[in-house]
Amino acid sequence: MNESLQSEEALDRAVGERDLRAASELLAGFSVRQVVDVMERAPRHRVAVIFRLLPKDFALEVFERLDPSVQGELFLGLQDSDVADLFGELDPDDRVSLMDELPALVARRLMQRLTPHERNLTAVILGHRLGSVGRRMSPEYVSTHPHLSVADTIDVVRRHVRTAETIYTLPVTDTGKRLVGVVSLRELMEAAPEARISDVMQRVDFARADDDAEDVSRLCVDLGLLALPIVDRETRLLGILTIDDAHRILLEAEDEDTARAGGTEPLRRPYLTTSVVRIARSRVVWLLVLAMSAILTVQVLEIFEATLEQKVVLALFIPLLTGTGGNTGAQAATTITRALAMGDVRTGDVGKVMLREVRVGVMLGLLLGSLGFVLTSLVYDTPTGVVIGTTLLCVCTMAATVGGAMPMVAKKLGVDPAVFSTPFITTFCDATGLLVYFTIAKVVLGI
Amino acid sequence: MNESLQSEEALDRAVGERDLRAASELLAGFSVRQVVDVMERAPRHRVAVIFRLLPKDFALEVFERLDPSVQGELFLGLQDSDVADLFGELDPDDRVSLMDELPALVARRLMQRLTPHERNLTAVILGHRLGSVGRRMSPEYVSTHPHLSVADTIDVVRRHVRTAETIYTLPVTDTGKRLVGVVSLRELMEAAPEARISDVMQRVDFARADDDAEDVSRLCVDLGLLALPIVDRETRLLGILTIDDAHRILLEAEDEDTARAGGTEPLRRPYLTTSVVRIARSRVVWLLVLAMSAILTVQVLEIFEATLEQKVVLALFIPLLTGTGGNTGAQAATTITRALAMGDVRTGDVGKVMLREVRVGVMLGLLLGSLGFVLTSLVYDTPTGVVIGTTLLCVCTMAATVGGAMPMVAKKLGVDPAVFSTPFITTFCDATGLLVYFTIAKVVLGI
Predict the structure, then answer these.
(1) Which of B396, B376, B401, B407 has its CA nearest to residue B436?
(2) For residue A169, what are the domain limits?
(3) Contact B276 A247 (CB under 8 A)
(4) pTM for this predicted structure
(5) Closest Cα of chain B to A398: distance in Å?
(6) pLDDT in tens, B236-266
(7) Chain A contact set for B364 (CB, 8 A)
(8) Pair B209, B327 in one domain
(9) Is residue A138 part of a domain?
């Protein structure tokens, strides 16, 4: 590990000093993965320099593994003929991902230079809407037919072994190209060579091309399938989704969920090669929305300004109380958002979930409330202790319930649950927590 | 979808009314996945009832897919002989995951009832520490040798096709059982039958059994491998990690990261079957730690109690300012924690990251600060506007920098970055934000 870090630093220096000979000698010792790592961490103008130093076959392998955003930028720094070659060598599904990163004009020109066969394969994918699995499937599958024998099918596999995306899962189609089953290479190896495919094939799990890419990917991974057939509305076979594409799609979805839960938009590209302005842009909308909602807290406090003037000590506990409410709410929201994403909980379970969260909230509130009561009574006085203790109990109960319900309501409304989770709930808990706090204070302290 | 929900509800009713005949008729129409779903959402006492209604082969398939925690509970509700049968049928790696959920005595008794072969396979895995990939690998691989021909190897594959975990990736070992390469079934299909394995095998990526399971899984998925060989310190082959086990390991890791980022411990089991006390327990430690740290905010405010008494209006902005600081910090922490997990950023990049985050923070701070200045000046007065504007600028800059640095420092110290992220940074930003706020207020307002 340390050794590879050293050679990466040496490469950085060599490229920086424009010592291209030293750089290409260093690169010869790198694995594909290392080169990808280096390129995804390098400043933009160096990416093309490094890439041009790679031997041709190796360069293609590296290119295929790069993030589409980096691929797109790299294209702008390469010669036209190199670009066309690379573009032609890509798998159709990867080509479409890259096209989404390119200016429309460039993408169209590149499409025209493809062979008719490659252009057709690409067009099949491009015909589906962004976000659908049709847009991410591979049309390069090997399929077989029910009436063929196992031995014949193995021959078919041998013939397509070089171009197919996978040969381990073979969709079985009837004469109308309709999907009727699936057979794995493993089953073919297990079966007698003269057996018919119709006798060894399995009932098939499949997805429609216009299904959501994330849902289909989760199905594929959950079922432990190496590839899932994708069909049209008449169950005619269009392509396959392989497990590694499914994983890539889930990773993107996870990126989005993680980012949203932290109140930002996903960068959709490696951090170190993203410009500062772009990073700021990914955060600013959320920050503004949250700050605007936080004005609510100012307004709530204004209502109680007279109370505050009479007893300034109440102000000291504001961040503690709102913070605890926010944390309790965030905990519940995180747990439920995750459970929803994993399918452990469904929107129909909202009643069950709220019932559980109320009970969890009361438990946590009783514990924190008694602690708060004892500590505050000791340091200040008993009435203040009663106010803090009661507020903590109420705030925890309320925050857990709302935090648990909010992601489910969001999902029911068709909104990404992560959008409504942590930061939103924190702000909501701040405002309502203050309302509860000062109401209790006024009652208990009689002001 | 709706139809399957209806039959799930009908099953619920049938089991509730102890109408076992109706229940087993309904179950006959369910897929493995549906039964798993139902069982992972059912109250504990019903899980065994449903399971006993399943036909034998189907029951095993369902059992293999259940969460280990649910498997463990189910064991307590089944007869001894059924338990021993199920236990014997599991793959060695799944067996070990289940053993971790069982009382030690029960686990030991079950181990004794295994066949010597199965017991040995299980012991190989049990010998590795929790969290290592050795603990999660499968010892049921098919391997070949460099001097064998392609045709011979395909014969070997055929002979082991029933028991092997995968036949698509074959490790190649020398006479000392040392790993020398890997060959895929695809390459075997492509090669001439009389070719030697030594001519078609590839250089191999592998991992050591004591390597971290999560790191190895990410490597396996990143490289798009269907299986990764696992070796001991002398590079002798011990087992393989398959892509679907790698997925499962990454999913668990993601569960943990998501939970920690929301300030809770992961439940490690389906939400609806987890007791309320257990849910509360997963949150209470974090909540207490955060509440204790929040006492710091009370202490900071105590320092400025005199200032507050002179100008109560300052209290109105406390939640807004601490909230905005917390949000900015959480955004930076979320982005960097994710970038670290994905390998986009390394601990050595801390300088680069902080430089970027300072600039992002200043940009966001300038925007929010000017907005805050204008709005507050209009509603209150210019000096208050200056205080709020300047505070927002300082708080945003500080929060982004600290939020970006914190996960990297945590990782360098060997602590899970998610632990130090969102909730911790929020609390930290609360306290320092208040310090900045009142210091600026004292200077600007001259109190």
Answers:
(1) B396
(2) 150-260
(3) no
(4) 0.84
(5) 15
(6) 999 999 998 998 899 888 888 888 888 888 8
(7) 280, 283-284, 287
(8) no
(9) no
What are the distances in angstroms from CA A140 to CA A43, A67, B405?
35, 22, 45
The answer to whether B277 contacts A363, with C-beta atoms less than 8 Å apart, is yes
Domain assignment present for residue B394? The answer is yes
B141-171 pLDDT, tens digit each: 999 999 999 999 999 999 998 888 889 999 9
Taking the CA of residue A129 and the nearest CA in chain B, the distance in Å comes to 23
Residue A223 has phi, psi (to 5 degrees) of -80, -5
**Contact A330/B262, CB-based, under 8 Å?**
yes
Q: Which of B57-71, B76-90, B120-134, B375-389: highest mean pLDDT? A: B375-389
Domain count within chain B: 3
CATH classification of the domain holding A380 = 1.10.357.20
Please check whether residues B418 and B302 belong to one and the same domain: yes
Long-range (24+ apart) CB contacts under 8 A made by B191-196 are: B191/B150, B192/B150, B193/B149, B193/B150, B193/B151, B193/B154, B194/B149, B194/B150, B194/B151, B195/B149, B195/B150, B196/B146, B196/B147, B196/B148, B196/B149, B196/B150
In angstroms, rounded to a whole number, what is the distance separating the alpha carbons of residues A406 and A328? 13
A6 plus A112 within the same structural domain: yes
Nearest neighbour of B335 by CB, restricted to A33, A271, A317:
A271
In A, which residues are within 8 Å of B318 by CB distance? Answer: 301, 315, 318-319
Are A262 and B334 in contact (CB < 8 Å)? yes
* 8 Å CB contact of A167 and B186: yes
